[in-house]
Amino acid sequence: MKYNKIEDLPREKLIELCGNYAxxxxxxxxxxxxxxxxKLGMDEAMEHDIAAWRSFTVIEAKRIKEFLGxxxxxxxxxxxxxxxxxMYAPLNKAETIIQGNTLTYRVLSCRVQQARARxxxxxxxxxxxxxxxxxxxxxxxxxxxxxxxxSCYPEMTDDTGNxxxxxTLHEE
Length: 172
Known about the structure:
The protein is α+β, with helices and mostly antiparallel strands.
């Protein structure tokens, strides 16, 4: 069947389209990064990547928070829900574990690292970007969160996934 606009799509096609949009968004993120990396080197690319994520992660978190109707301080369950609605959520396999006042988020398979491996490229050193990205995202969802990196390239301490982050909710 031919569709003329998004509003005409049935549910299964909308879900498929969301997956395509996520892939396109992630491809664009990788293309601009690799362009800077090739021309100016990894350090310069990382500097720009961190700056971009510092702004984007807040925008994304605010929009997700509003879309889900989360309260100002959404807590651990709010962060868990918000992480499941991130732009790249349909692309990476991840798990979240809540224990006490912490949420551990582990990316089991990362499309970015898989793509770099397929191209014979060194893994993306995502720890410095991840600290800004995940830290800013969590603080936007609830300003009581702090973030600790558990395992992330190039400092891998857990070989069961691509990265692992620990969010701690500090009650006042």
